[in-house]
Each structure stands twice: as structure tokens, then as C-alpha cells.
From TrEMBL:
Ranges in coiled-coil conformation: none
Molecular function in Gene Ontology: nucleic acid binding
Name this polypeptide is given: Tc1-like transposase DDE domain-containing protein
Ranges of residues in domain Tc1-like transposase DDE: 33-97
One family name in Pfam for this protein: DDE_3
Signal peptide (from-to): none
């Protein structure tokens, strides 16, 4: 978001399912963040299979969380991919790269905190252009 960010939360054990996504991401983090931001909050995920289950959609609906809909397989339109790329480059450029899951999580968390806020602000501000592009690609509407 502009002028801020949440903490990075690593979910690293096992396979992410729709129910795990609800229990470990949506309810403890997204719901609370939406409550803090208010009615203008729009949630964006990355179209992963676990994000698209009926249980996840039911959870979002029941919590009053509006999801920004993106076409499948369109990572170039999703601004979070730019953030993940920057974060990955920072981790890869460390003097002592991570050698196991624990050091990777620590490195990701440390580098997340160091990412320039201006990068995140620019990504959020690019949303207007990305949404316009998405609408153009789909004949004037975003498919649901």
C-alpha cells in the first residue's frame, strides 16, 4: 500500500490448500488488514489454484472482502510480481545467500523490511494503468 506495508508472513510447511489459505492467511491477516483500512480495501491475490476455491470465495464474501479480479495466467499484469522480483534479487545478492528454509525465511523477512517504500508506492500507483490494460485486453470488461 502507499506509505506503508504489512509484515511479511512466511507459510512454508506443506502444501497450501484453500482451507490453509483461509486459516493461515485470510482470517488472521487479510481480514484484520481490511478492518483497519475500511470499505475502500480491495484485496489482490495471484490466481494460485488454492486462492480460487469455492471455500475461499465464500470466506471473502462472508467477510465482505472485495477481490480484484485478474485474468488467469497474467503475471505481467499483476504488480506484486514486480515486488517479488525485487525481493528475490535482494535475497540473491546477499553476501551469504540462504542455505536452508530457515535462513531463506530470515533473509526474505530482512530484505522485505529493507525494500524502499517508494518501490511499493510506485507499484500501487501503477494499478490504474494495469487495470486499464486489463480492461482493454478483455474487450472493455474484466471477466469474472
Amino acid at each position: 500500500m502507499i506509505n506503508g506495508r504489512t509484515c511479511l508472513h512466511a507459510v512454508a510447511n506443506g502444501t497450501m490448500t484453500g482451507q490453509r489459505y483461509i486459516d493461515e492467511v485470510l482470517l488472521p491477516h487479510v481480514r484484520l488488514f481490511r478492518g483497519a483500512v475500511g470499505d475502500k480495501f480491495v484485496f489482490m491475490d495471484d490466481n494460485a489454484t488454492c486462492h480460487r476455491t469455492l471455500a475461499v470465495q465464500d470466506c471473502l464474501d462472508s467477510e465482505g472482502i472485495q477481490r480484484l479480479v485478474w485474468p488467469a495466467r497474467s503475471p505481467d499484469l499483476n504488480p506484486i510480481e514486480n515486488v517479488w522480483d525485487a525481493l528475490g534479487r535482494q535475497v540473491a545478492g546477499r553476501n551469504y545467500p540462504p542455505t536452508n528454509k530457515n535462513t531463506l525465511i530470515r533473509a526474505l523477512t530482512e530484505e522485505w523490511d529493507k525494500l524502499p517504500q517508494q518501490l511499493l508506492d510506485n507499484v500501487v500507483q501503477s494499478m490504474v494503468r494495469r487495470v486499464e490494460c486489463c480492461i482493454t485486453l478483455h474487450g472493455g470488461h474484466i471477466p469474472y
